[in-house]
Q: What sequence folds into this?
C-alpha cells in the first residue's frame, strides 16, 4: 500500500472518532429534517436547504481544515521525521480530511432527503445539490490547507479563513450587486456569468437554483443563466469551475507544503 | 557528489555538516555551521534560546531546508523522499499527537509508514512503564506520559543515529534516569547520538562532546573536559555562562593569527576548520572560547 493511502487510512480512523465531524453531520441532519418537516415538503424545502448548504459547507470546511493543519503541525513534523515523502503525506492528509467532511455532508443531508421522499421526487436537484456540496467541501478544504500552510500564526490564519468565507459567501455578492446596479443600462449577462465562475459559492448556488427551476424568479438574467447552466454543457462547465476551485488552491497548498520549513 | 550510504551493522553513522546556513526571512538562524557528529559518542548541542539548536536538528532531518551549505549522514545527503530518515530516530520537543489515536495505533502507523516488519525495540516501553497505556488515546494521557511515548518511539527502530531534542523535558526523575541509561547503552553500541538539553545535569553525566552554538555559529566544539579547562569552570553551567557572556568574535576582531590565541584542537585533515582557541589575554577574568575558521 502506498504512503498516501496509509496516511489516509489512519487519519480517517482517527477522524471517525472526532466530535467535530460527527457534530457537523448531526447539524446537517437536523437542519435538513427540520426544513423538510416545517418547510412544507421537498419542493419548498430544497431551495432553503440549498441556501444552508452554500453558506454552512464552505464555512465548516474552511474552519475545520485550517485548524486541522494548525493543530496537526507537530504531528506532521513527527511523521516527516520518518521515511515519508512530503507529496504522499500531503495527499493522504488532504484526502483524509476532505473525504470524511464530504461523507458527513452526504450522510447528514442525504439521509433525511432519502427518508423524506425528496430523493425520489426531485432526484436531479438532490443529486446536483449533493455534487455541489461535495465540491464545495473539497474546494474550501483546499483553501483552508492553503491558508494554514501560508500563514504561520494560527490566530491570523483562522481570521483570514473567516474573512475568506465572508468574502466569498456574502461580500462578493454585494459587490456583484452593486456592479449590476451601477451598470444597469448595459448588457451584463456575460460579466455576470464570469463573476459567478470566479466565486465557488456562486457557482454552487446558481447550479442548484437552476436545478430547482427557480430561475424564473430572476427575470431575463435568469433566462440567460437557465440557458447556460440548464443544459449539460453548462452543468459540466459549472462543475469544472468547482473542480478548478478544488484543484488550483490544492496544488498551491501542496507546493507550499513540499517547500515548507517545519 | 554523494557517497554511497554506509550499511548499518549496529554501528552509528558519522554526520558531517558543512557551512550550513538558514535564514527565516531576514533573520539568520544558522550562519555557516561547520561540525561533525561522531559515531559512538553522545554530542550535546548547547546554546541559549534562539541559538539555532532546534533548527540544526531539523535540518538534519530535512524538516528545515538549508539556505546554503550541506549535510551528510553516513556520506549521503537527505532527499525529498526521506529514505535517509529510516536511519534516524528522532525525539521532537514535546510533540502533540492525534488526540483520538491510541499509543498502539500510532506505533502501528509508524511501523506501517516505515515498512517496518522487524522486532521493534520496546525496552523503553517497559522501562518507562508504558505497557499499561498502550491502548489509551493520547487525549487521556498526561504531558509526562506523552513525552515517555515520544522517547519510546524515537528508540523503537534501532536507528544508527539518534536525534533527541530536550529528551528529559517533562519526565519524572525515574523516567529521566531510565532514558539516560538507554542513551548511554546506545553510545556503547556505537550509535551516533545528538542531544539538546537545557538540563545541564543530564549532559554532565552523558555527553562525550559539546557543540556550543551562539547566534547561529559554532563557538565551541570539543570534549566536556576541554570546555571546563578552557573556560576555567568547574561545571558545565559555569562554562556556558562564560561563553555566553564573553564578547563576540566580531566585536574583538579575533582571528586565527591573533596573539594570545591558543589553538586547542585539530591539527590535521578536516579538523583544521573546526579548531578552537581560548583568548585568555583578552579577558583574564572571563575566558572566551570560540571557533577559528
A:
Amino acid at each position: 500500500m502506498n504512503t498516501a493511502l496509509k496516511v489516509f487510512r489512519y487519519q480517517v480512523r482517527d477522524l471517525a472518532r472526532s466530535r467535530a465531524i460527527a457534530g457537523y453531520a448531526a447539524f446537517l441532519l437536523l437542519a435538513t429534517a427540520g426544513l423538510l418537516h416545517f418547510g412544507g415538503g421537498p419542493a419548498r424545502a430544497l431551495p432553503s436547504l440549498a441556501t444552508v448548504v452554500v453558506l454552512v459547507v464552505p464555512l465548516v470546511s474552511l474552519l475545520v481544515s485550517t485548524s486541522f493543519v494548525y493543530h496537526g503541525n507537530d504531528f506532521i513534523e513527527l511523521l516527516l521525521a520518518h521515511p515519508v515523502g512530503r507529496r504522499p503525506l500531503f495527499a493522504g492528509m488532504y484526502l483524509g480530511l476532505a473525504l470524511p467532511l464530504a461523507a458527513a455532508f452526504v450522510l447528514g443531508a442525504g439521509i433525511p432527503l432519502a427518508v423524506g421522499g425528496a430523493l425520489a421526487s426531485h432526484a436531479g436537484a438532490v443529486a446536483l445539490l449533493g455534487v455541489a456540496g461535495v465540491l464545495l467541501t473539497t474546494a474550501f478544504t483546499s483553501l483552508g490547507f492553503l491558508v494554514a500552510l501560508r500563514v504561520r500564526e494560527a490566530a491570523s490564519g483562522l481570521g483570514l479563513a473567516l474573512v475568506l468565507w465572508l468574502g466569498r459567501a456574502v461580500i462578493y455578492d454585494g459587490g456583484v450587486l452593486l456592479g449590476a446596479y451601477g451598470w444597469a443600462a448595459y448588457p451584463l449577462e456575460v460579466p455576470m456569468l464570469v463573476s459567478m465562475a470566479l466565486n465557488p459559492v456562486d457557482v454552487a448556488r446558481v447550479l442548484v437554483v437552476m436545478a430547482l427551476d427557480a430561475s424564473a424568479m430572476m427575470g431575463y438574467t435568469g433566462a440567460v443563466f437557465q440557458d447556460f447552466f440548464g443544459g449539460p454543457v453548462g452543468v459540466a462547465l459549472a462543475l469544472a469551475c468547482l473542480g478548478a476551485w478544488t484543484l488550483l488552491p490544492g496544488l498551491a497548498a501542496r507546493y507550499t507544503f513540499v517547500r515548507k520549513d517545519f | 557528489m554523494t557517497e554511497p550510504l554506509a550499511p548499518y551493522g549496529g554501528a552509528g553513522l558519522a554526520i558531517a555538516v558543512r557551512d550550513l546556513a538558514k535564514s527565516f526571512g531576514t533573520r539568520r538562524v544558522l550562519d555557516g555551521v561547520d561540525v561533525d557528529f561522531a559515531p559512538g559518542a553522545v554530542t550535546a548541542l548547547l546554546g541559549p534560546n534562539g541559538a539555532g539548536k532546534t533548527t540544526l536538528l531539523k535540518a538534519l532531518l530535512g524538516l528545515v531546508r538549508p539556505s546554503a551549505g550541506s549535510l551528510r549522514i553516513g556520506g549521503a545527503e537527505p532527499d525529498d523522499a526521506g529514505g535517509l530518515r529510516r536511519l534516524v530516530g528522532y525525539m521532537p520537543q514535546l510533540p502533540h499527537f492525534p488526540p483520538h489515536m491510541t499509543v498502539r495505533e500510532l506505533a502501528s502507523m509508524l511501523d506501517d509508514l516505515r515498512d517496518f516488519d522487524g522486532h521493534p525495540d520496546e525496552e523503553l516501553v517497559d522501562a518507562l512503564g508504558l505497557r499499561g497505556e498502550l491502548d489509551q488515546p493520547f487525549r487521556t494521557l498526561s504531558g509526562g506520559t506523552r513525552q515517555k511515548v515520544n522517547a519510546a518511539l524515537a528508540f523503537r527502530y534501532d536507528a544508527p543515529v539518534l536525534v533527541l531534542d530536550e529528551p528529559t523535558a517533562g519526565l519524572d526523575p525515574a523516567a529521566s534516569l531510565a532514558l539516560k541509561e538507554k542513551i548511554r547503552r546506545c553510545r556503547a553500541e556505537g550509535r551516533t547520538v545528538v542531544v539538546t538539553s537545557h538540563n545541564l545535569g543530564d549532559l554532565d553525566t552523558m555527553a562525550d562532546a559539546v557543540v556550543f552554538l551562539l547566534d547561529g555559529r559554532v563557538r565551541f566544539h570539543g570534549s566536556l573536559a576541554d570546555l571546563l579547562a578552557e573556560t576555567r569552570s568547574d561545571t558545565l553551567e559555569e562554562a556556558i555562562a562564560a561563553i555566553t557572556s564573553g564578547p563576540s568574535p566580531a566585536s574583538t576582531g579575533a582571528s586565527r593569527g591573533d596573539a594570545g590565541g591558543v589553538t586547542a584542537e585539530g591539527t590535521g585533515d578536516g579538523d583544521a576548520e573546526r579548531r578552537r582557541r581560548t583568548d585568555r589575554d583578552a579577558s583574564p577574568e572571563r575566558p572566551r572560547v570560540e571557533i577559528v575558521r
